[in-house]
Amino acid sequence: MATQTRTRPASRGRESAAVVNLSRSRRTIKRFLRHRVAVIGLVIMIGIALFVTVGALFYSEADANYNDTSRRLQPPSQEFPFGTDTIGRNILARIIYGGQISILIGVTAVTVSVVVGTVIGVASGYFGGLVDSVLMRVTEAMLSIPSLLLLLVMAKFFSGKIPTQVILGRSFSGSVIVIVVILGLTSWMTLARIVRSAVLSIRETEYVLAARALGATNRRIILAHVLPNTLAPVIVAATLGVATAILSEAYISFLGVGVQPPTATWGNMLDGSRQFIEDAPWLWFFPGLMIVLTVLSINFIGDGLRDAFDPRSDKKV
């Protein structure tokens, strides 16, 4: 009986914590679903994701790269719904596979950015002192460098130095790896400052002070208490960062120093349409439309997540 009496409060504590977390998650989801623009963005993003994934069941990568100059610059038709490009490739197939690469670059680059920014932000905010000073000076130095200029210079410098890679049956030009690494390593600074500001307030909370008084190690405090409470700003920043990474890839690909053939992206498809803006508008219209829809939908989702994670926005949108 004594053993049962001692174990009941612990089990009840775990159950109550689970109920609190569940109710908090439900409130967050409800706040997001009340954000009509965010829901519209989510629907559009799901449609784009289905387009670039399900579309691969109807067109192979070979179809996207197959060229036939006898059918070059054909306008949209029943055979080629999005028309053909300057060397007779099917634009619809290239948009499907180019979309996979553009979205992959955005997600992977943001993953690198989130890992670097979170580690630096947590270390700077939690340990403070000399660690904080050094890491923040590095962050400020990186912020003082124009990221687009650095991206252009580094992409040009490393262009062609990494051979084409075949991963899971897909061919990726070496420039894809270069762009992902450069985008990830030049976009973590803002996130690091956001995480640092959140950690500065979290480390002074009662539960962190209590854990430290009970002898918990810094590693356990960071993993169990600090990181979980910084997830909200990290998720929002990561979501918006995907849109920024897709746009940045489109910028440098449009300027000719981004992802190189044979890998297609929406950005380098725009680069190939520069000389035919008036004569063949379908060359730039469809990839440009996909970039606009993707970036807008991600930004809408990011706005919805920002409001959903903010308890003060618990009102009807």
Which keywords apply here?
two-stranded antiparallel sheet, disordered N terminus, mainly alpha, single chain, elongated, 317 residues, 2 strands, MetI-like fold, 13 helices
Q: How would you summarize this macromolecular structure in one to three sentences?
A:
The protein has one domain (29-65, 82-313): MetI-like (MetI-like fold), CATH 1.10.3720. It contains 13 helices and two strands. It has helices at 2-34, 36-54, 61-65, 91-127, 129-143, 147-158, 174-185, 189-202, 206-213, 218-226, 231-254, 266-271, 282-308, and strands at 165-167, 170-172.
CATH architecture: Orthogonal Bundle
List low-pLDDT spans: 1-11, 13-20
Counting structural domains, the number is 1
**Topology as a string of helices (H) and strands (E):** HHHHHHEEHHHHHHH
Topology summary:
Elements: H1 2-34, H2 36-54, H3 61-65, H4 91-127, H5 129-143, H6 147-158, E1 165-167, E2 170-172, H7 174-185, H8 189-202, H9 206-213, H10 218-226, H11 231-254, H12 266-271, H13 282-308
Antiparallel strand pairs: 1-2
Helix pairs in contact: 1-13, 2-4, 2-13, 4-5, 4-7, 4-8, 4-11, 5-8, 6-7, 8-11, 9-10, 11-13
